[in-house]
Specification:
77% of the residues lie in helices and 0% in strands. The chain folds into two domains: 1-78; 79-141. The chain is flat and about 50 Å long. The protein has 141 residues and is mainly α. Helix 1 (15-45) runs antiparallel to helix 2 (49-76) and helix 3 packs across helix 4 (121-138). It has helices at residues 15-45, 49-76, 80-111, 121-138. The chain contains four helices and no strands. The chain starts with 14 loop residues before the first helix and ends with a helix.
């Protein structure tokens, strides 16, 4: 007889992955809230000086939390294969982002195309990670 899936049945059984997912959701949520807050502050109050610099840097605190979550996952994950796949995915994301930014920078310099908004770099990194993960997993099927 089949057991009923709990309501949270979509969460992995691996405790390191569960903690990682919780930390990532918390940091991404914080990033969204802080980004909206900062944008609203600049739209409404037009801050200047040190306060403007502090506000502009605030969403990066959530990204720092995300990076800490990545590091903690790598420490807590006991399965070497999963850790290795995760590291390879991160390296592909870094490599894809670096290549994209280099090509775009050269195009900006020599072809005078539109400037790439740097606030999209973190998102671009995760897009490359998302593309690379299934491709890396195909090697082991």
């Amino acid at each position: 007889m089949k057991e009923r899936m709990p309501v949270m049945g979509c969460l992995p059984k691996n405790s390191a992955v569960r903690r990682f997912v919780f930390r990532v959701v918390a940091s991404v949520s914080a990033n969204i809230v802080l980004t909206i807050f900062v944008a609203s502050c600049f739209d409404e109050f037009h801050p200047h000086g040190p306060l403007a610099y502090l506000l502009a840097a605030l969403p990066a605190v959530a990204i720092l939390g995300f990076i800490v979550a990545l590091g903690l996952f790598l420490v807590e994950e006991k399965d070497e294969f999963q850790r290795n796949m995760f590291i390879q995915t991160l390296l592909c994301g870094i490599g894809g982002t670096l290549v994209f930014m280099e090509v775009w920078g050269s195009l900006e310099t020599y072809m005078h195309i539109r400037h790439f908004p740097m606030t999209w770099t973190f998102t671009l990194f995760w897009i490359f990670c998302g593309i690379s993960a299934p491709l890396l997993l195909r090697r082991y099927r």
